[in-house]
Amino acid sequence: AVVNRPDILLADEPTGNLDPASSSEIMNLLERINLAGTTIVMATHDRNIVDRMQKRVVEISNGEIVRDAETASYKEIPSGPMPVIPEPKDFEEKP
Q1: Residue 25 included in any domain
Q2: Is residue 35 part of a domain?
Q3: Residue 17: what pLDDT?
């Protein structure tokens, strides 16, 4: 999908059901693709990914756009209770 350097890449839950190390690898790959000039449109429920990418966040609820924010941490935008979600690095083995 990325061999031809597309203008846009759609990623639907790219880290869903992956272990933390694999999730981190996928996100590193997507960041490199983005830095090479490809716009990435990603659907995710993982708020850590939203905070890591910190680009533009569009939240949809019941088919309606309820939030459209640029470069803001998802945690900084009030939306009710916020769960604590560990970072993938929290699960990596220490040498």
Answers
A1: yes
A2: yes
A3: 92
